[in-house]
Amino acid sequence: MKNTALRSRQIHLDFHTGPWILDVGRDFDAREFAQTFRRAHVNSVTVFAKCHHGQLYYNTKRPERHPGLRHGLDLLGEQIEALHREDIRAPIYLSVQCDEYAADNHPEWIARKPDGAPVGAGPLAPGWQILDMSSPYQDYFAEQAREVLKLFKPVDGIFFDMCWDQPSLNNFTVEAMQRAGLNPEDEEQRKTFSHKVARNYMKRFFEMVKAASPDAGVYFNSRPLQNLAEEIQWQHQVEIEALPTGGWGYMYFPKNVRYARTLGKPYLGMTARFHKSWADFGGIKPYAALEYETSQMMAHGASCSIGDQMHPRGTLDKGAYELIEKIYARVEAREPWLTGATPLTQIGLFQVPAKKVLRTSESISSGTDEGATRMLTQLKHQFDVVIPSADFARYELLILPDCIPLDAPLVKKLRAYVRGGGKLLLSGTSGLNEDGTQALLPEMGVKPAGLSPYKTTYCRFDPQIADGTAPSDHVMYEPSVRVTPLSGAVSLARVVEPYFERGWKHFSSHFQTPGDKLSAYSAAVCSHLSVKRGGAGGAVSFDVGYIAYPIFSAFANHGNIPCRKLTEKIIDLLLPEPLIKIDGPSSLEATLTRQGSRTIIHLLYYCPERRTPTLDIVEDIVPLYAVPLSLKIARKPASVYLAPGGEKLEFAYALGRLEITVPEIRGHQMIVVE
């Protein structure tokens, strides 16, 4: 068996092939199959034992073997053998909750909605029926998995797909819930039970794989990434499926990788070669888009995976692999500066708990995680996404965006963090009770007076943070919390309230009511616990910042630049020496990694464009020239150069900062500081 370590240039080779196609594998040539991947610089291919149709693709006496697979053809076995000859890893794919064969032959195993309707596609819809894992289907699936593990032992890995929590009112689930003392009529108890079922079968199948092949990788796909902390024990790696044109968008991967990479397991990003989403036969993504997507993976320290789907006859799309060959040759050339490199961060961004939103008297704000990721990326800050159990000491600044609930242990931990020199930024109801009437962290320096009665108000920047911002009262489209600063705190922006709340009885003009007068309430407050002296005078060292608006969800929902400017100014006061400063456009992305004594700067400049109502496309790579950059670094480096070309860069070093000018950024530029 070849090395089972997670590889860096992967293909996820879908093969969902309906039983009505009767020439499966007819043109399959094992040698050409493997050499296509070798020529394309691929070092791992996930191959199919069982697809969503419930069909099997290896020699078996089980009736689920695909009826169109030629007698005697062990398609999976030949694929694995040919790939291993080329030193290409070959983990095996098994579809879990999608199985058309089982659903058609055992309709009693299908998951059911509260009204009794089947979960998934109905009888006249071309789509997937969803199986209930509390039914005998789980043992049926276990028999299939056990056979695969025996026939192909030792396996490189198993990729279990379609593994979400599936609530159901199938008779098997109802009986199991009652035995567990749960009420099937209660929706929350159904969700709780489905989560328990999923955890149990993950544990069961993980142990089954490890018993057969101790070194094999195991991954359960379709699990909520917020569950990783509790489920990482059954995941050999983390795979972030994120086809930007397939519904995930271009923020899904960078948002979630910043959490996945904190868990100590190998991780990868998964996109696809398709123009749209999975099984988009004939759809080829523009080169620039696939370069951007794999460059994001490299910049965040992730391995790369590109999805494809093999034609039923067993052939690979030549155009797709010409594209993949260019992409993976580029990735391979950069691996000397990628292998073993870990992200270098300064900020810990709290993740909003699942289904937690900021509730006000008039609205529900959402999009906080995406808004925070988008904003901090545009500001070039280096950050991880963290949860309350994280090691806060790793970060100079913690951000609690919009609606992070605090319990007593978390309050205690945050207060200790601030006393130890850490900085905090909170917004919305973070740090307050739910109705915004009580501060749970005295260090915030605010006296809250509840949620504003106005859906829309205006923010007036104080002169000390107003530079670079238009001298206007800037509209804030989301309701604020009413707060005033306490002694020792400084108000840096004020709320301008409207004449009245717009309604059917009284309104003015087309949209929100204009501002009336400056209120007594602050839009942003900074407080300090100490005064640091330097030189001839003293400078206030701010420790905690608070923004009264759900500023991150507001930015996600409205894209209003003053939201970013206000946040930028407050972060500057809390974190005056960011790891990196760049004089470049907001769409320029910057990430840092550390590889031994090296610091690697990744600069990405690609601009997705909305060219259809639902698709963002990257078609062109437009270069940037002569970009000034400043890096916080403890010692003067010996050398600064571009990778992989090795071109030397001139640099200056003073007061703990490296100053360089990057001559060109053409999509993705890597600068190595040694």
What does this structure look like?
The chain has 3 domains: 9-339, Glycosidases (TIM Barrel); 347-578, Class I glutamine amidotransferase (GATase) domain (Rossmann fold, 3-Layer(aba) Sandwich); 582-673, Sandwich (Immunoglobulin-like), CATH 2.60.40.1180. 24% of the residues lie in helices and 26% in strands. It starts with 8 loop residues before the first strand and ends with a strand.
Outline of the structure:
With 674 residues, the protein is α/β, with parallel strands linked by helices.
Name the CATH superfamily classification of the largest domain. Answer: Glycosidases
Seen as an oligomer or otherwise, the chain set is single chain
CATH class category name of the largest domain: Alpha Beta
Strand order of the largest sheet: 13-10-14-15-24-21-20-17-18
**Which of globular, elongated, flat, extended, rod-shaped describes the shape?**
globular
Reported by name, the CATH topology of the largest domain is TIM Barrel
Mean of residue pLDDT values: 94
Q: Strand count, sense and closure of the main sheet?
A: 9 strands, mixed
Alpha-carbon Rg, integer: 27 Å
Strand content: 25-35%
Question: Which architecture of the largest domain per CATH?
Answer: Alpha-Beta Barrel
Number of separate domains: 3
Structural class: alpha/beta
| Unreliable residue runs | 356-365, 531-538
Distance between the amino and carboxyl termini: 38 Å
DSSP strand tally: 34
- Give the count of helical stretches: 14
